[in-house]
Each structure stands twice: as C-alpha cells, then as structure tokens.
C-alpha cells in the first residue's frame, strides 16, 4: 500500500475519533449515548482526548504530502471525519461511540507504517 493511502486512512480515522470525542463532551450527545450527563472531569477528558486525536491527524498528512498540501488535506479530513457524525449520532449514538473506540486504535496502528 502506498504511504498516501495509509496516511489518508489514518488521518480520517483519527479525525473521526476526535470529532466523536468532542461530540460526546457535549451534554446533549453524552445524554443520548449513555443516558446521563457527563461529569466535569469526563467532559474535560473527552475534550482533551478529542483535541489530541485531531492534532495527531496532522502529522500523517504532512508526512505523506508537503506541509502546504498536508494542512489543506488535514482540514478536509477533519470535515470528512465530522460528516458521518451528522448522520449517525442522532440515530445511533451508542453505536457511534463504539465505532470510534474501535476505529482509533486501527488508525494509530496505521501511523506505525509511515516513515
């Protein structure tokens, strides 16, 4: 597999996971998924984890493409990672949370294949 394909898949998976964590940090979506509002500690942890995953989606883009193209593609992957949440979160909130939990380790494993 080419480096650009692996980098794109890893960035998309990390963006999806990061956006999912940021959505679950909101009271409404956390209530939908788990039946209760998040505590302050959970909210801060979800926001921090989401921001970290979004930041981790940038290096594979810059490594596979140049810095200028990589940053633009990273922004595109952030948008593409948020798009499934628009459709999935209102209808299957718990399944969305579990899908992100399964997808993020696979995306992190994909980072090991990049030079």
TrEMBL record:
Keywords: Membrane, Transmembrane, Transmembrane helix. The keyword Magnesium does not apply. It holds the Pfam family DUF3325. It comes from Massilia mucilaginosa. The keyword Nuclease does not apply. InterPro entries: DUF3325. This is DUF3325 family protein. The chain crosses the membrane at residues 6-25, 46-65, 71-89, 96-114.
């Amino acid at each position: 597999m080419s480096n650009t394909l692996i980098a794109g898949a890893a960035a998309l998976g990390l963006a999806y996971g990061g956006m999912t964590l940021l959505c679950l940090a909101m009271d409404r979506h956390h209530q939908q998924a788990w039946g209760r509002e998040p505590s302050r500690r959970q909210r801060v942890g979800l926001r921090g984890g989401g921001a970290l995953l979004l930041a981790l989606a940038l290096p594979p883009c810059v490594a596979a493409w140049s810095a200028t193209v990589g940053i633009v593609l990273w922004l595109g992957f952030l948008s593409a990672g948020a798009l499934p949440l628009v459709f999935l979160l209102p209808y299957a909130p718990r399944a969305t949370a579990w899908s992100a939990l399964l997808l993020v380790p696979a995306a992190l494993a994909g980072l090991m294949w990049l030079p």
